[in-house]
Amino acid sequence: MNIEVVTTIPELFDQFMEYGVIGRGIKAGKIHLNLINIRNYTHDLHRTTDDYAYGTGIGMVMKVEPVFEMFDEYLKNHQRPWVVYPSPQGEIFDQSKALELSKKTDLMFICGRYEGVDERIMSIVDEEISIGDFVISGGEIVTMAFIEAIARMIPGVVGKAFSVENDSFFSDLLDHANYTRPSSYRGMDVPEILRSGNHAKIGKYLLKDAIKRTIGKRPDLFIKRDLSVEEKAAIIELIREKKEC
Ligand code: SAH
Fold first, then answer.
1. Closest ligand 1 atom number to CA of residue 110
2. Is 182 tagged catalytic?
3. Are 23 and 105 contained in the same domain?
4. Strand 184-185 and strand 127-130: pairing?
């Protein structure tokens, strides 16, 4: 997948591209991540990318010309990407959006700054996406979060597919509790069954734990979910266990 990030601060991505899932995905050639410095498309000495807002004069707005010139230049050598503008006014990002975007071959994120972008930039944007109902100062951190979620959905980017499929939201269920060594710490023990080596029992236990957590923490997710036969059986067991207590 080709990902282009249009930003005034490409340096913010230096560490992001080096480490973890993204670093490995880039090294393995699964993700091609390219940064486009919008300042390279300005023509003044100060490489200005913002200007005063028409009407109010309050706050700065990201200028239209550098973005359009960048896009014209880009299209000379590439096919048109799917263009995302991270914005608090967009639909809120979730796992299904991550999966949908992971199937695109060419993605471009335009990171806003200041009061946002000149509205005419919207004419080249395919989709506005929000990270949540709050405002931060720039699209860069949002874009990193989106890219990481999208990259995890590309086959082969996360080592064992198992760890992605078990993640919260992958199937509208939250992840079960996880433990590592030591098996006992300050009086808190890892559940016996997880150390039993009985994989069938462990599988059932983890499913029940995921169901319990989802009902407890995010009932809204659970309500919209179609239950599989295994999940129905797990719920019956949970109710029986409760009765026995
Ligand atoms: N005045 C704008 C917010 C500008 S914040 C408004 O109220 O709509 C500056 C930039 O940060 C935005 O252009 C956007 O790219 C990014 N940004 C801020 N909050 C965001 C959010 N919740 N989701 C996605 N992007 C966000």
1. 15
2. no
3. yes
4. unpaired
| Active-site residue, from 127, 167, 172, 175 | 167
Cα 138 to middle of ligand 1, angstroms: 6
Provide residues with CB under 6 Å of ligand 1: 86-89, 111-113, 115-117, 130-132, 134-139, 142
Does 149 share its domain with 172? no
- Residue 16 Cα to ligand 1 middle (Å): 20
Q: Give 109's contacts (C-beta < 8 A, 6+ positions apart).
A: 3, 4, 5, 6, 84, 85, 86, 139, 143, 146, 147
pLDDT-derived band at 167, boundaries 50, 70, 90: confident
Arithmetic mean of pLDDT over the chain: 95
Active-site residue, selected from the candidate residues 106, 115, 128, 148: 115
> Which strands make up the sheet holding 32-37, listed edge to edge?
32-37, 2-7, 106-110, 82-92, 127-130
207 with 227, same domain: the answer is yes
Residue 222's CATH number: 1.10.1270.20
Query: Do residues 127 and 232 both lie within one domain?
Result: no
Domain enclosing residue 213, as ranges: 166-244
Cβ neighbours around 56 below 10 Å, total: 8
Last residue of a domain, one of 159, 176, 191: 159
pLDDT 10s digits, 125-151: 999 999 999 999 999 999 999 999 999
- Both 151 and 193 in a single domain? no
**CA-based radius of gyration for the chain:** 23
Q: For 78-89, what is the mean pLDDT?
A: 98
Instruction: Report yes or no on whether pTM surpasses 0.90.
Output: yes
